[in-house]
Amino acid sequence: MEKPKRILIVATSDIHLQVFHLPYFAMLKAMGYELHAAVEVRGNGQVEGIDQLFNLPFKRTLFTTKLFTAYGKLKQIIDAGNYQLIHCHTPIPAALTRLAAKKARKLGTKVMYTAHGFHFYKGAPFGYWATYYPAERYLSRFTDAIVTINKEDFDIASGKFKAGQTFYIPGIGVDTKRFNVDNTIDKQKIKAQLGLPSDSFVLFYAANFIYRKNHQFIIESLSDIKRQIPNLKVLFAGSGVLLPAMQKLVAELNLSDTVHFLGFRKDINELLSITNISISASRQEGLGLALAEAMINNVPVVATVDRGHKELITSGVNGFLFAQGNQQEFKQSVLKLYHDPALAKTFANRSAEHIKKFFIENSLAEMDKIYRKFLSVSKDDQPN
To answer: Which residue of 56, 113, 245, 375 is most buried, as measured by CB atoms within 10 A?
Structure first.
């Protein structure tokens, strides 16, 4: 019996889908597919393009019995859904999905997994390799396709794992419609609204306050930088469990006048318009969407050496990369761009050109090819 044109998307939360996947849903809808999603509702539970949404308890930790509940419900959804394709994202939901879909695969359902950055990577703690690597390698045998968004992950998956096929796409895609440069923005007005002096030298970090993003490193580096950049201001856009601790650290270091906590923001474009340097201290990234957005907006970048950041930045060519935990390298990078505006402009221009390969149009085109390998879609069904 031929399966209906129905796809199940599995990910950690509805917010994840809203932020990263709407263009892909539009493409699949244009192919004529009905889309279901299984996520934990952490936002408003409304995802454009999704016809039916299931709310499952996908917690951020492995140490909870709620994952057994999530697995049981997910298996029921998969067994009853008669899906042509199941596309899973993020490690915990993807692990549960591939185990729950064993029966469905025997009946012809294809299972695809997009790795948005494996938790094991060059330089990762041994515990990450000991836990996540064997799990991902084992689960790969229940996966028809693994899609990676950086070359380091692709090399590992294609060389060591047992998935049917492995693919590389240039990131999940930067939506140029959301982050195009707007030269009409009144920069001084935005600074005034944020309570910043007109001559502020602004560092901007867009990241949720979680361990991986390592805000503490940035904060602990600021006192030395401020001594050489008196008009320094640092903007943190994001929320998260570590926000109170970082606010306390800023107060303890007498940096409250320098650091501004902006919370979750939807006006990243405007904030980037007043930014002198976009920074990241992330311990690991699949690609680094925040930096990509800065590059589109002609903002020079300074970030940690990381597999995702290395996709975007060639240090000394279109930005600076500093070693994980190396405050001296971070400080020197910031100060060099502060003292050399011409170099900052050169980096920004080169980044704006390099980032084009990561535009959403390119990622969509690659995913279109991949989907067509596993779906009964002819080129006559090409979306408009």
So the answer is: 113
Give the burial string for 166-192 (b: 16+ CB within 10 Å, else e). Answer: bbbbbbbbbbeeebeeeeeeeeeeebe
pTM greater than the 0.90 cutoff:
no
- The CATH number of 6-173+359-381, from 3.30.420.40, 3.40.1390.30, 3.40.50.300, 3.40.50.2000, is 3.40.50.2000
- CA atoms within a 13 Å half-sphere pointing along the CA-CB vector of 266: 2
- CB atoms under 10 Å from CB of 91, counted, come to 20
Residue 233: half-sphere exposure toward Cβ, Cα within 13 Å: 20
Task: Return the pLDDT at 181.
Answer: 63
Instruction: Please write the tens of the pLDDT for every residue from 236-270.
Output: 999 999 999 999 999 999 999 999 999 988 888 89
Residues of 314-343 as b/e, b for ≥16 C-beta within 10 angstroms? ebeebbbbbeeeebebbbebbeebbeeeee
Domain with CATH 3.40.50.2000 in the chain: 6-173+359-381, 176-358
Superfamily, domain 176-358: Glycogen Phosphorylase B; (3.40.50.2000)
